[in-house]
Write a structure and sequence with these properties.
Structural class: alpha+beta
CATH architecture of the largest domain: Alpha-Beta Complex
Number of strands: 12
Low-confidence stretches: none
Order of helices and strands: EEEEEEEEEHHHEHHEEH
Largest sheet: 5 strands, mixed
Helix content: 25-40%
CATH class of the largest domain: Alpha Beta
Strand content: 5-15%
Radius of gyration: 25 Å
Length: 286
C-alpha cells in the first residue's frame, strides 16, 4: 500500500516486514493453564481496547504466546479492526498476529497506524476466504509505514492519545444518554405490556371492549428450549456461512451480524433454531 499523501521531510516510508516480525512461539493450554488468554472477542473493534480476558485452561487448541507491550493484530475478518497492546503477558488465539516490541519504531505509534481505515481497507482487500476472510503476514508485511524520527513518533502518540481521551469522555456521556434511553424504552415497554399505556383509552371506550387481559406464563405460550453449541474442537463446524448467534450479538432486539458462522454439519450437531424464533439471553446483567 503506497501512501497517496507525500510524507514530511525527515520521514521515511518503510514496509512493515522491515519493522516487525510476528512471534512464532506457540504453547499448549495444558502447559500454562493459568496464563491470561486473549481471543478476538476480547478486543473491541476500532478502539484498540482490551475488554476482558479468559484463561488458557478454558481453551483447547494451540495458542501463540505474547509479552506485555506486544501488538495484537486480528487477522480474521480484518474489517473488524481489532488491534491492541496488552499490559500483561499471556497467550492468544492463532487468529491474532503477535508483533513483539521493536526498536525500529514506537510500538504505540505502530499500533495506531495499523488501526487506521487505510490499513483496514488494505488488509480487507488482501484477505482470502469467502466465509472466514483472513489476511496474513506475507500480505500485511507489504504495507508501507510512514516513519518519523522516534522523538516525533512519541509526540504524535502523546497528542493523539490526549485527543482520544477527550473523545472517550464524550463517548462516556453518550453512553449515559444511551443507558437513560434504554431505561425509558424498557419503562415504555413495561407500561405497554401491562396495559398502563392505553389505560385512558380503555376508560373512554369501555363499552366497546369485548375481551379482557389474561396473565399467562411463558411456558404456556410456545415451545421453549435452550441452544447447544457444536463441539468447538471440530473446526469444520465453525467454517460455514450460517450465522451463529451468541448473547453478545443481541443488541437491543437487533442482530446486525454475528461474529461466528457455522457449517451445515455444525448445525446438525447443535440444538440451534433457524427461523421465526424469539431469542432471549440466558445471561443477565443487573
Amino acid at each position: 500500500m503506497e501512501s497517496e499523501t507525500p510524507i514530511p521531510e525527515g520521514w521515511v516510508s518503510v514496509p512493515l516486514n522491515q519493522l516487525v516480525s510476528p512471534s512464532t512461539e506457540k504453547v499448549e493450554p495444558a502447559d500454562d493453564p493459568d496464563a491470561f488468554y486473549i481471543g478476538l472477542e476480547h478486543i473491541e473493534p476500532n478502539t484498540t481496547r482490551i475488554v476482558g480476558h479468559g484463561f488458557a485452561r478454558d481453551t483447547k487448541s494451540t495458542k501463540t504466546r505474547f509479552i506485555s507491550g506486544s501488538i495484537l493484530y486480528g487477522k480474521l475478518r480484518p474489517y473488524l479492526n481489532k488491534v491492541s497492546i496488552p499490559d500483561f503477558d499471556g497467550v492468544c488465539s492463532t487468529d491474532i498476529l503477535v508483533f513483539p516490541p521493536s526498536d525500529a519504531a514506537d510500538t504505540r505509534y505502530l499500533m495506531r497506524f495499523l488501526s487506521t481505515s487505510a490499513v483496514v481497507d488494505f488488509a480487507t482487500h488482501q484477505s482470502s476466504g469467502m466465509e472466514l476472510p483472513r489476511t496474513n503476514y506475507l500480505k500485511l508485511g507489504q504495507l508501507q509505514i510512514p516513519i518519523p524520527p522516534l522523538a516525533e513518533q512519541r509526540r504524535i502518540v502523546a497528542r493523539l492519545e490526549a485527543l482520544l481521551a477527550d473523545t472517550d469522555q464524550v463517548r462516556g456521556r453518550l453512553d449515559a444518554v444511551e443507558e437513560a434511553m434504554q431505561r425509558f424504552r424498557q419503562a415504555v415497554l413495561g407500561a405497554a405490556c401491562s396495559g398502563r399505556l392505553t389505560e385512558g383509552w380503555r376508560e373512554e371506550h369501555i363499552v366497546l371492549q369485548e375481551t379482557s387481559w389474561e396473565l399467562s406464563k411463558l411456558q404456556d405460550m410456545g415451545n421453549w428450549s435452550t441452544g447447544g453449541t457444536p463441539p468447538r474442537q471440530i473446526k469444520s463446524f465453525f467454517a460455514g456461512n450460517i450465522p451463529w448467534v451468541k448473547s453478545g450479538d443481541l443488541n437491543d432486539g437487533v442482530i446486525a451480524d454475528t461474529e461466528e458462522r457455522i457449517s451445515k454439519e455444525g448445525l446438525d450437531n447443535s440444538n440451534a433454531k433457524i427461523l421465526g424464533d424469539y431469542l432471549i439471553s440466558a445471561t443477565f446483567k443487573y
